Amino acid sequence: MKRFALLLAAFLLAGCAAAPAQPAPAGTEQRVFNDTDVMFSQMMVAHHSQALEMVRLARTKAVREDIRTLAAAIDVTETDELKTMQVWLGAWGQPSAADPSAHAAHGGAHGTSPDDIKALGATSGTEFETKFLNMLIAHQHNAIEIARMETGTGVNPGALDLARRIDESRTAEIQQMLRYLNAPS
Amino acid sequence: MRKAIAAVLMTLATAAAALLVTASPASAHGYISSPPSRQAMCAQGRVANCGAIVYEPQSVEGPKGLTSCSGGNSRFAQLDNPNMGWPATSVGNTVTFNWVFTARHATTNWEYFVGGTRIAVIDGGGRQPDATASHTVNLGGRTGRILVLARWNVADTVNAFYSCVDLQVGGGGGGNPTPTPTQPSPTPSQSPTASPTASQPPAGTTTWASGTAYKVGDRVTYNGVTYQCLQAHTAIPGWEPPNVPALWKRV
Lengths: 185, 251
Fold this sequence. Notes:
heterodimer; A: mainly alpha; Ferritin; 72% helix; B: mainly beta; Coagulation Factor XIII, Chain A, domain 1; Seminal Fluid Protein  PDC-109 (Domain B); 2 domains; 6-stranded mixed beta sheet; 2 helices; 34% strand; disordered N terminus
């Protein structure tokens, strides 16, 4: 079984890496994309949806204003990014969600499960804040990993640019959240 | 023919590169976020010159049984260096350690050490942990500055994850952990790309700067263009006004 999984992983990896960039219709460099761009966008659509659920809980449940403000800013920026990626996937003729197991070999499933988000929603006060910050820090670390997969082998200019900004902004968000955790107001 | 061989080699090289890149998430797993571990101090920018750990505080993985803060990783050697100016968090005799998990491995246990002595062990039951973990540990009446080494022992690999936490233990017992009073406020750092334009920003506006807290209605200039804030936030790299229409409107 393990051997099969390895073979499958190797096949998926080789398939992703070796797939040539799709031919670009003249003058539309945004139409140039490969399997990594598709995988990045599909994984990120799912990953963003989970983050949005968490920050929307925090917009009302967090006690501290600085945490609520950060949650609101993440809400609006990730909502925009999510729409952008859905538009790309549509333009590329790709579904906006893929079978999660198809991405397992790429560190897929490193997200936050519905059960975890439900458990978060059942807490309140400072317990909620601590749990929220630790969960979202982990979630954004995972976002950086997915973004680095894209900057490693993606080719679509828009997706590459978004991946670089995700890497930068999530690193800074993690910095802010670690400070909030360790400087109770 | 030569071309064909070159093409094959190229494909293999690309596949190998993809393997390296996609293998990296597997090295990411978890660390203590509060009180801040050494890697958390580095990731939040409270300690400088930390090296690669800044970008992957969750990756301090090494064979089980070590007593080093770096888990034996030479690329994280800074974590073992006592002369990095690690701030010590002020705590009482009882401390709650909070973990960030980026991959939730089945867990044998978490062990906590001071010096060579194991002061606590929390059973993981061989199961996958919850999304977060909080462990309350009694420091056994120790006082003064101490270094706590935490070891997260994974159940189904030979490895563990290492986190070291510098603490200043007060005389009184039983209190909740209190943060050090000397929390530096984030210093606004100038964005490398937001170079001030030659002309003065229009009256009532400032040049956009990472680290600044903006409120709705604030006006900034970025690369000579004026923007108005739509959503309160603290500016960070990656959130430059032209990149985030949800936060900034061009005016």
